[in-house]
Amino acid sequence: MATVLWHGVDVLDYKNAYIFDISSLSETTDKTLTVVVIGLGQMGHSHALAYHRNPGFQIIGLIDRLRPGKTFPDELKEYSLLSSFEEGLALKPDVVSINIHTASHADYAVAAMESGAHVFVEKPLAVTVADAERVVNTAQQTNRKLVIGYILRHHPSWIEFIQQARHLGPPFVMRMNLNQRSSGDAWAIHQRILHDVKNPIIDCGVHYVDVMLQITDSKPVQVRGMGLRLSDDLPSDQGQVNYGHLQILFSDGSVGWYEVGWGPMMSETAYFVKDIIGPRGSVSIVMDEGKKSADNEKGYSSANINSHTRTSNIRVSAVVDGHTQDKMLSMHGEPDHYELCAREQQFLLDAIREGWDLSKHMQDAVKSLGIVLAADRSMRENRAIDLE
Length: 388
Known about the structure:
By secondary structure, the protein is of the alpha/beta class. It has 10 helices and 20 strands. Helix 1 crosses helix 9 and helix 4 (about 130-140) packs antiparallel against helix 10 (about 360-380). It starts with a strand and ends with a strand. It comes from Talaromyces stipitatus (strain ATCC 10500 / CBS 375.48 / QM 6759 / NRRL 1006).
């Protein structure tokens, strides 16, 4: 067995060991893998473009719920638009890429793997822990690869951020948020997501809880959550909130919080905070003022998808002999949203061709989902939730 280096980084540093599993090598290493893509929204069309541009994949069908006025990128117009998920499975694809509403993730992923396909599925993996475990169990029973869309795991700047943070503790203080002022079509998308998950903490909080779990090796022991419905656009009788906040307590004394809000009422001030503090200093993702001004001129804001992953700079503040020494690490040239999606799909291709054991990748997805669901439960029951 051999440890895999991913983008030149020893993934053991981040507890993401992908072990070579010779029993799963059912494909030849040079085979082009056929793909059916389900869902062509913001993430789905990005992944479809990644398959289109990667010679290791061949799209054989697209499935999407068409809306009035919706158009596809020119590069995708050459592909067949299928009428149903069942029609896609009938083509016997090597890979099914699932980028639809979260409530359908589990059933579609299970059906795809039982039909013989490997699966890429956007996060979160499911709307319940039981469903997420059902998907993982199916992957193990069918010997199919299951990759979940944790895009930050493929971002070199975030890998560096996590590595720098791990030098500072334990214990850690982990402070993160991603608020989005969304309006028009973007707010409509957020409302559709909330129809499934009820709380934005569940949809995007899994990313940042996953980052926290990579920074500290300590076991999360308690979760607290709160939330508010801040818009009459959301039905008052379905339990939907568009603002959420969670706090996690860890067994080594580390603490973490994450905040997220969606909608036209959200502030553009301090909407992107990524800050880790430990006894030996702090590390923060910061955007320089010149970049902020340029982004404002381009119309970038908290709702722009590239602003969700871009780091610009990482400030490392180390405590040495009682004094703080600061250094700024430039992340110039970091990948944009579409290149990150391309890296995710290359990871899927490599996992299939090289027979990686993705057990920990799948288990980590279930763990982060369980924590954000516990935070939502805490909000609704108005109490702290102890984790097993």
